[in-house]
User: Fold these one by one.
Assistant:
Number 1:
Amino acid sequence: MKKLYQAKNNSGFLTLLRQGHSVIPLAETLEQMSKVTDQEDPAKVQKFIERAKSQADEATQFLITLVEFSDNYVNDTAPQFMVNQTVMTSKEQEDLFILAMQADVFRIMYEVSYSYWKDKPKLIPQKTKNTFASIAKELRAMDDTLLQFKEMAAHELVWGQFATTEQLKILTMRTMKPHFEELIKTMTEFRE
């Protein structure tokens, strides 16, 4: 039964990786927001903020689902961790899931949205614009990383071997970790 589950899980992981969500639209929206002038129409700025919130939510859901599907039963491991009703098979997977949740750009967009409508006059501070630019840069780097693995995932879906899929999962997750950590660092610095 575990082998059947793992085959289904592997297929889900590869399909998510291959056809998954791009974070480029969010990066583009944040780049636009980083260039907003003080004379910008507040309604236009609020549209940017709402778009970024929606895009950030979609990106986070994709990324945490990708982490969720990155589990493996190579050593016949029994599920042992549960985070937000998500079963994990290793401490590494649980840690990465938590990092992906902490790297959620939606929360910072929610904070910015609240501050923007509370402030008079309605301005986006330079520190916030710099943060948007930094987050956008990291999101672009993350997207480049994911693109590297999309082609491998397409190959695995057609010609895949169990061991290769497991290696692809491990490599993808190991490579995503620094992106999550950098996003967390940027957002933590913003809040200080």
Note: Strands lie at 81-83, 86-88.
Number 2:
Amino acid sequence: MTQALEGIATDNRIGATTTASEGRGETRTRAAVGGMPTAQIIALPDLHPGSEGNAGEAPILKEWNPLHQIKARLQVCVGEATISVGELLGAKENQVLRLDRGLDQPVDLTIEGKVVARGQLVAVDGHFAVRITELPVSLGLTPGS
């Protein structure tokens, strides 16, 4: 890469340009007008769906958003209890701590400590699960919105 940059700098100093074929191992130099490098227009294929393209090329996804690929740790908060450090240190096995939330109240689904939805705690195949009951206003990040 350094050699390529040095070659471009040298070519510009002597009033010449190197063509795009240099990346393929071919180098052609021609004199520039007035000592300035010249720009050339290149033809690129259309990127719009339905345009003619080479067979075997992957289609361009209209409905894809890279933000949808980001992973986040979702946590479920069933309630809180306020106790002193002394009470916690004195806690015994099988002791029950009463939480501030009733059985009929929804649980909070949080990401980074912020509530992003609410739901009902249920069981599925021997595992805890959450049935989502409240969602915030859409942020416009879903496909088609």
Note: The radius of gyration is 31 Å.
